[in-house]
Specification:
Layout lengths: L5 H12 L4 E12 L6 E12 L14 H8 L7 E6 L2 E2 L5 H11 L12
Antiparallel strand pairs: 1-2, 1-3, 3-4
GO molecular function: ATP binding; ATP hydrolysis activity; transmembrane transporter activity
Pfam families: ABC_tran (PF00005)
Protein name: ABC transporter domain-containing protein
């Protein structure tokens, strides 16, 4: 999945110099689905960083891995390999209850379509 990382990487470097820090980082994220003969690789070694105060929009064509990426960053799924760090802490080894607490307190999504009211 092609992602323009120039803004994100520069944002983190500037944040580190100004005593702020990266609030979200992905290192080498890989996620695939299906049996070996028909495996679909949703993410292949994705690296990204987001610094405090930075906004991120994830855009791309259908099937390019956007939802998979958001599920991994939102701690709703686990990567095949790689790490997700929130405020510098690797959250990969945390149990589901702890991950749910982090989701409730630290993570928010704005969905393209939502059906909160019927």
């Amino acid at each position: 999945m092609p992602i323009d990382q120039s803004t994100s990487q520069l944002g983190c470097e500037a944040a580190l110099q100004s005593e702020s820090h990266c609030i979200l980082e992905a290192r080498g994220l890989r996620k695939s689905f299906g049996p070996a003969a028909a495996r679909v690789h949703a993410l292949r070694g994705l690296d990204m960083r987001v610094s405090r105060g930075e906004f991120l929009a994830v855009m791309g064509p259908s099937g390019c891995g956007k939802s998979t990426l958001l599920h991994l960053l939102g701690l709703m799924a686990t990567p095949d390999t790689g790490q997700v760090l929130i405020e510098g802490r690797d959250v990969g080894g945390l149990g589901e209850a702890h991950r749910a607490r982090i989701r409730r307190r630290r993570i928010g999504f704005v969905f393209q379509r939502f059906n909160l009211l019927s």
